[in-house]
Amino acid sequence: MIRNKWRNSVNDLNTFKSFRLRVYAFVVENAGVKSLIVLNYSDVEAKEAGEGAVNVRMRWLISKEIGAENFAMRHIEIDPQGHSPLHSHPWEHEIFVLEGEGLVTGGADERRVKEGDFIFIPPNEMHQTRNTSRKTMKLLCMIPYKEKSD
Questions:
Q1: Do the beta carbons of residue 133 and residue 81 sit within 8 Å?
Q2: CA-CA distances (angstroms) from residue 114 to 44, 95, 99, 130, 132?
Q3: Averaged pLDDT score across all residues of the chain
Q4: Residue range 82-105, pLDDT digits in tens
Q5: Distances, alpha carbon 147 to alpha carbons 11, 62, 90, 91, in Å
Q6: Residues facing residue 77 across a β-bridge
Q7: Cβ(51)–Cβ(85) under 8 Å?
Q8: 39: nearest Cα among 58, 56, 57, 59
Q9: DSSP H helices in 8-147
Q10: CB-based contact 59:114 (threshold 8 Å)
């Protein structure tokens, strides 16, 4: 009862979100301390993906900043007709399609993907993800940490 009453208030909801952001800031400041972390993706700022990407935003959900030493998890949103850059790098990608549909290019191959599909992109393969639907395509993308010199 108290929880429902509390959640019905916009001011209280904003206070709750502010609290979660403070928790996130605490975790970042204390990244050396290993402990369970549970956050909501909406509390992580979506930033433009960068050079070569068109209408793509990315949230670094799990990263070194919260203590992950081996892998990163990113939430990616690609607007209709948007795409990632055509690129390659010396590490693999694991991708899960949360929403939407599109095309994934890998080497000389091009495949249609949709909600529920998962994708493996091997190291050093030229690849790109394109949104071909009318709604935002949402992906989870996992990558290992590699030094730039690899």
A1: no
A2: 25, 12, 7, 11, 10
A3: 82
A4: 999 999 999 999 999 999 999 999
A5: 44, 17, 10, 10
A6: 57, 138
A7: yes
A8: 59
A9: 10-29
A10: no
102 membership: H or E segment, kind and range? strand 101-106
Domains and CATH numbers, the chain: 1-38 (no CATH), 44-144 (2.60.120.10)
Task: Return the closest-CA partner of residue 75 out of 63, 60, 85.
Answer: 60
DSSP state at residue 46: P
- What does the block give as tokens for 45? 């700022």
CB 103 within 8 A of CB 83: no
User: Which amino acid is it at 60?
Assistant: W
Place of tokens 């909406």: 42
Contact present, 87 and 105 (Cβ < 8 Å):
no
What is the pLDDT, as a whole number, of residue 33? 57
Exposed/middle/buried for 19, CB within 10 Å: 0-12, 13-18, 19+? exposed
pLDDT in tens, 42-58: 999 999 998 899 999 99
| Phi, psi (deg, nearest 5) at residue 97 | -85, 115
Q: Whole-angstrom Cα distance, residue 101 to residue 144?
A: 25
